[in-house]
Amino acid sequence: MTVERSDLEIRPITGPAELDLFVRPPYVLNDELAADLDDGHRQPGWMWVALRGDRLVARAAWWGSPERSSPALLDIFDIDDDTEDDESMQIGEQLLRTAMAAVVPSGTQPPEYVRFIPPDWRDHAASRRVVEDRMTAAERTGARLVVERLRLEWRPGTPVPARTGRLDFRPANDPGELIALMTLVMDGTLDVHGRDDLTRMTPAQAAAKHFNGELALYKSPHAWWRIASLPGGEPVGFVIPARNDYNPIIAYLGVLPAHRGHGYIGEILAEGTRILAAENVPRIRSTTDVGNVPMANAFHRAGWITFEGQISMAWPKEDASRLATS
Question: How far apart are alpha carbons 266 and 296 in whole angstroms?
Fold first, then answer.
């Protein structure tokens, strides 16, 4: 049950003029907010604050596509770490419920909550408190942990292994062929979101959803995409180098079930890295679930570092109608 607090003002920011207010709590995304407002990835109506007088005691912000009227992700949520724990979490809960009632279209499933975290956040009391208090406040509105992920980065100067000759690479020009390979990769996937999709749809539907909802939308050259095959032409896997709105990325990498366990993942990753490195990029980023140990190990063997972590939480669809009323 949310306790309404009469001394709080909860509202969206008025516009860019209030960014100085919004960025008072430190966070890795603060420096991107001005540009995000300019290009439409943020809207003032998606950026909410809880104020006690002129003191910011909580904030929340959503991110989305400039072409969409509703946001895709809740990626900023902060509460006052100098306020007593339970009171601070109550304020955060109240802010989330109030803002979500205005931001999320009625009856729809709210976007996931994502927070970037130090990779060793459990080892330090201060960072552990920051992460866990925000998770607890979100849980009070019905959110549940979906997955913890590793955020990985390749930096210029890190060697990229030469091709071994075991695999050939060709452009992935045919969306139908790529979706078919993605369908095969769904078998035995360790990706939490992929496994969740398989509880509600067929592997082919899950692959098409991923392709159409993400990969096909990248504005970077699709000519970068590669299918890996044995010298005789049999497909082994694929890699999707791309550039999102902020960084060059390895968007997706997969090895077909029949070819897992032979070390091909490292060669496929190297090919994707090589393509982006040739563009003289300042970094390349990617993510993988903490539980996807083979994928994480492949990145680490290739010299990628874990520079950050990420937690993702979600609200069950059936709980959406209760968010504003509990």
Answer: 11
CA atoms of 90 and 140, how far apart (whole Å): 8
Task: Report the amino acid identity of residue 252.
Answer: Y
Spatial distance between the Cα atoms of 19 and 31, rounded to a whole number of angstroms: 10
Neighbours of 23 (CB within 10 A): 17
At 231-255, the pLDDT tens digits run: 999 999 999 999 999 999 999 999 9
Q: CA-CA distance, 158 to 153, in Å (whole number)?
A: 10
**Using one digit for the tens of pLDDT, what is the confidence trace for 93-110?**
999 999 999 999 988 999
Residues 181 and 237: beta-carbon distance below 8 Å: yes
Distance CA 226, CA 116 (A): 29
Tokens of 208: 């098409």
* Residue 84 Ramachandran class (φ > 0 left, ψ -120 to 50 alpha, else beta): beta
Are 9-151+312-322 and 168-303 the same fold in CATH?
yes
**Token pair belonging to 157:** 């100067």
First CA to last CA across the chain, in angstroms?
Answer: 5
Query: How is residue 33 annotated by DSSP?
Result: H
Given a contact cutoff of 8 angstroms between Cβ atoms, the answer to whether 50 and 56 are in contact is yes
The residues spanned by each domain of the chain are: 9-151+312-322, 168-303
CATH annotation of 9-151+312-322: 3.40.630.30
Sorted by sequence, the CB contacts under 8 Å of residue 60 that are 6+ apart come out as 47, 48, 74, 76, 77, 78, 95, 96, 99
Fold of 168-303: Aminopeptidase (3.40.630)
What is the SS3 assignment for 60? strand
Beta strands at 226-229 and 168-171: parallel, antiparallel or unpaired: antiparallel
